[in-house]
Amino acid sequence: MNATKLAKSSAVGTAVLERTFKQKLLTPVLIGVCFLLLTLENISFRPIKLLKSLVNDAITYSAFIINLPVNFTADTSKSFLEFFNFNIHQENKILKDQVNKLISEKNELLFFKNENDNLKRTLGIRNQGEYAALLVKVIKEDTSEFGKSFSITKGSSENLELGQAVVRNNVYLGRISEVNLLSSKVMIVTDAGSRIPIVIPSKGVNAILKGDGYSNAELLFLPPSSSLDNNDQIYTSGTDGIIKEGLYVGKVIVKEDKNKKKKYSVDLGFKEHQLNYVSVLKLKR
User: Fold this and answer.
1) Is 213 helix (H, G, I), strand (E, B) or coil?
2) Domain residue spans in the chain?
3) How far is it, in rounded angstroms, from Cα 212 to Cα 265?
């Protein structure tokens, strides 16, 4: 009996020693892996950059594939509910497309009219090149408190570059902030890190539009003497030499505080979580 107890105690002791040894061995291995990853992050060696790009692509498309069943179920349920009103739904869709097209054309015409009327007062560098629009699909949105962005299905294989503007119906949405081989990330204009040069042609005012990190944006560096009105149209100025000028951004909203001082906010020309297909504007070379 004593022999049996001794054998069991020995077995337990051996197991504990083996587990302790494995844990001690695993710790330096994990530290070594972390150190290796941090080292690779700062290496600009081309094969390493390609590997990082492929890993980012794999993560992006994996999230898209994982969400497919959920999106399919939601879309199927929506389609089933709309089946009984099919004709109304189709007619409504056609009307919405026509309205969006008219709004886009109106915004373009209004911009060029205002620009012509205020040409002597408007300052800035003019983009002389032509742009080509590349249609892409939005495959993942990330609108958390830490950032406002979405991922698209094109990358460096389609000659996408950092800073290129992303639009829908000529409305500015954001700019490319990360480029992988087969996908890219777009920083939305509402992101706290977003800064773009804008112009308000009706007042001849240039400023910077900054995202507030939530669902809106604010105007910075307005001239002290400027006085804006409700519904003044806001467009990209193109002074950074990358983003096309004349893209509609939104309109000015004016409120007064208790001292009758004007406070300005921006009503953007799009809504988050309603983006399926967008276009990337590439400067023709």
Assistant:
1) coil
2) 104-283
3) 11
> 123: which DSSP letter?
-
pLDDT single digits (tens) 186-226: 999 999 999 999 999 999 899 999 998 888 899 999 988 88
Q: What is the 3-state secondary structure (H, E, C) of 3-38?
A: HHHHHHHHHHHHHHHHHHHHHHHHHHHHHHHHHHHH
Q: Residue 185 in 3-state DSSP?
A: strand
Q: Is 263 left (phi over 0), alpha (psi -120 to 50) or beta?
A: beta
Q: Which of 161, 152, 139 is nearest to 283 (CA)?
A: 161
- Residue 205 contacts residue 228 (beta carbons within 8 Å): yes
CA distance linking residue 216 with residue 207, whole number of Å: 16
How far apart, in Å, are the Cα atoms of 103 and each of 77, 190, 203? 31, 22, 22
Q: Where are the alpha helices (DSSP H) in the chain?
A: 2-41, 46-82, 86-117
The dotted CATH code for 104-283 is: 2.40.10.340
Share of the chain above pLDDT 70, in %: 71
- Return the axis-axis angle of helices 2-41 and 46-82, rounded to nearest 10°: 100
